[in-house]
TrEMBL record:
Alphabetical list of Pfam families matching this protein: Hydrolase_6, Hydrolase_like
Protein's name according to its UniProt entry: HAD superfamily hydrolase (TIGR01450 family)
Domain of life according to the entry: Bacteria
UniProt GO molecular function: phosphatase activity
Length: 346
């Protein structure tokens, strides 16, 4: 990638507009393209500019409750015209992932919504309703109407030897009212009953990213997400350039405090910034990191900032300073890292 320079676990230095450095953009949905049923400012604009620049856009979501056709219809209604083939859900990935663990055509107990049931059936497996049917696997995905009986049936099947495959392990789900329990929270209830940790096809595994990149024959992928623990951890795990946009779950402060495996390569306030380059902070001889008008350094284990807390460059400088110190074995006092005045706050 000639216009993007990555250095270890730090931020990437991109000298050209970000829309120029990729041939495919793997875009998360909740918190990036929309929030619940509401649009996110500049999302349609930024995605439109990617497409106008010839970039393939694939929406890669850990949501397993809906069909790609339903997702595409929602995006189109929010001025992001989308075909079902441009959507890759965790339900589809989960169904494809089953063949790693069970025989073709085997019985599967699906605990989830229509999207997961359809995907598993289309993959050629026999859907069953209870643990009494002796399923070879339990496929678990999010569904807003799931209840105790559904989770109990999954637990019974797993205790009898069924493999537990989760569509994703997201603990929370962003909605237009705030954050609600996600599939990972429901999965933890089953794990608490069985003591069996599930396999997962969803992010932070890079499995879905790999599927999309291979299908498109792309060579310069870019991941765009709002969660450090799923979207960006998946980007790091797969070796993909990862963008964190501050319109969803993870905040700017979260990014500054992120462990190496979850760090973004690029931090943007929103998708309008895709038309801009992404300067990486530079370190001076005194150990201070500067980016634009902002600067950051670590003194006595505390972060010291120069710059506005509403300036994205301050976030980038802070991240560079904290990451370098942490990677060098210095413990940074988390209380010294402020809450920045940008991004989405529930």
């Amino acid at each position: 990638m000639s216009d993007a320079t990555q250095t270890g676990a730090g931020l990437a230095h991109v000298t050209s507009p970000l829309i120029d450095v990729c041939d495919i953009a793997l875009i998360d949905l909740d918190g990036v393209a929309y929030r619940g049923h509401q649009p996110i400012a500049h999302a349609a604009e930024g995605i439109g500019e990617l497409r106008a620049n010839g970039v393939t856009t694939i929406f890669v979501t850990n949501n397993a409750s809906r069909l790609p056709e339903e997702v595409a219809a929602q995006l189109t209604a929010l001025d992001i015209e989308t075909r079902p083939a441009e959507v890759l859900t965790a339900a589809q990935a989960c169904a494809r992932y089953l063949d790693e663990f069970i025989e073709p055509g085997a019985r599967v107990l699906v605990v989830g919504a229509k999207g997961l049931r359809v995907a598993v059936a289309e993959a050629g497996y026999e859907l069953v309703a209870t643990a009494e049917d002796e399923p070879a696997a339990v496929a678990q995905g999010f569904g807003p109407d799931l209840g105790w009986r559904d989770l109990a049936e999954a637990a019974y099947a797993i205790q009898r030897g069924a493999r537990h495959i989760a569509s994703n392990l997201d603990l929370s789900l962003p909605t237009d009212r705030g954050f609600a329990p996600g599939n990972g929270s429901l999965v933890r209830a089953v794990v608490a009953a069985t003591g069996v940790e599930p396999e997962s096809a969803g992010k932070p595994s890079p499995t879905m990213y790999d599927m999309a990149v291979r299908a498109a024959g792309a060579t310069r992928p870019l991941v765009i997400g709002d969660r450090l623990d799923t979207d960006l951890a998946g980007a790091r795990a797969g070796g993909y350039l990862g963008i964190l946009v501050l319109t969803g779950v993870s905040s700017a402060r979260d990014a500054v405090l992120a462990e190496a495996a979850m760090r973004p390569h690029i931090i943007l306030e929103n998708l309008a910034a895709l038309r801009e380059p992404h300067p990486a902070p530079a370190r001076d001889a005194a150990g201070s990191w500067s980016c634009g008008a902002a600067a950051a350094r670590i003194e006595g284990g505390r972060l010291v900032l120069t710059g506005s807390l509403s300036d994205i460059d301050t976030v980038r400088a802070a991240a560079a300073a904290v990451w370098a110190a942490t990677d060098g074995g210095i413990t940074v006092d988390e209380a010294s890292v402020p809450h920045f005045d940008l991004g989405y706050v529930s």
